[in-house]
Amino acid sequence: MAPSDLTMSQVSSFVSTFLRASIIFKVLLQIVLRYFVSTWRVISQLQEQISHRTFQHLKMAVAVEDVMDLKANHSAPVLNDPTPVNKPRLGIHDSLGLRTHFSQTPFLTIAWKKPGGVLDDVRSTNWLDAMKSSSPRNVTKYYGTDFSSNDADMAYRDWMLKYHSALTSFEQIANNARGKRIALFLDYDGTLSPIVDNPDHAFMSNAMRAAVRNIAKYIPTAIISGRSREKVRKFVGLKELYYAGSHGMDIMGPVRPPTDHNNTTATNDEVKEGKLYQPASEFLPMINEVFVRLVELTKNIQGAKVENNKFCVSVHYRNVDEKSWTTVAQYVHDTLKQYSRLRLTHGRMVLEIRPVLKWDKGKAVEFLLESLGLSNCDDVFPIYVGDDRTDEDAFKFLREGGRGYGILVSPAPKESNAYYSLRDPSEVMEFINSLVMYKKSVP
């Protein structure tokens, strides 16, 4: 048909059809565009969440650095020519075939130079991030992201693929320990006792005390705590244990009554009362000064508690309103500026001021193994059970030494130098009772 033959009705019909097709195409195009935009938004949100969680992991790793830069433009002096340490006997059970003297080792009094740096205000550092990350109040927010209970359980199960339960893996642990001499090291708070709001009320149960008493009949057992030695010994109430307070800076052997059939009769009162090793004794006046000052500074902060643990000062902020955490941290920071030989470490909702001394729970384990005559033996199997960041030094010592196992007590996933895990003190007690049954079954 020639163009001249087109009627007006046909032209109108053609235009109408074209317009309808254009509208349909536009609608389809909008649908496609909306689909791609929606998909892009979902992908962007997922990427943002993944990036945020990764950032939280990194931030948390940085936030809990063990030593903070505290001295502005000034490095702490190295303690040159330290006084030789006289390491007395700690009262070792003769029936266990253990040595009762110490060799002079170089690591005992090596000072640690505190890293220099500028710290004008706690807000310019990661103090507050570290304080928040140490809070065990809500384990579903451990990584800075809200999880549902199902997500938290799934995350914990995934985590346990790396840190197997020491209960379900007990047979494997026992097989590896067979024919070897086991030594057991235990943290106190969060391990033998639950974490509580008031640190003065962190009592262990009678059942836990019985379990620890029973295992101490078979193997050397030590409590290594950040608390003062006297305080943790009073909490535990067992004379047959080794106690290392102030993160291992105050060590004492068992008090052995003359009627104890496992021991030789003590010949003097000094042996009866146990022996002390205190590598940080020269810091006592300094620690006491800091304690008095921080008590005065924090007296008007509701919920703040300053604890004198003899060779370290602990500032608890568990019961402090989070809005006041900055004030607590600032008081600690301002105090530490006056003491170049003291440093800060973070515990579970506690700021701890300790001597600048290369000594930690790992060194305490090393010292105790040496005092037991087990430091250079292939048939030694140390086990360390703890829940806190300060226990990581002991886990690391065992891992790097390639002997024994560290067992982390935690209800939430976190990276550790431990090999195995337990969820809470009730599982710790079950593990100790399993050790007792194992020792009863082997010659």
TrEMBL record:
Pathway note: Glycan biosynthesis; trehalose biosynthesis
The protein's UniProt keywords, in alphabetical order, are: Hydrolase, Stress response
Q: Which PANTHER family match?
A: TREHALOSE 6-PHOSPHATE PHOSPHATASE (PTHR43768), TREHALOSE-PHOSPHATE PHOSPHATASE A (PTHR43768:SF27)
Annotated EC: 3.1.3.12
Reactions that this protein is recorded to catalyse: alpha,alpha-trehalose 6-phosphate + H2O = alpha,alpha-trehalose + phosphate
Q: Which organism is it from?
A: Lactuca virosa
GO MF terms listed in the record are: trehalose-phosphatase activity
Task: Name the job this protein performs.
Answer: Removes the phosphate from trehalose 6-phosphate to produce free trehalose. Trehalose accumulation in plant may improve abiotic stress tolerance.
Question: According to its UniProt record, which protein family does this protein belong to?
Answer: Belongs to the trehalose phosphatase family.
Q: Which cofactor does it need?
A: a divalent metal cation
The record's Gene Ontology biological-process terms are: trehalose biosynthetic process
User: Under which name does UniProt file this protein?
Assistant: Trehalose 6-phosphate phosphatase
Name the source's superkingdom: Eukaryota
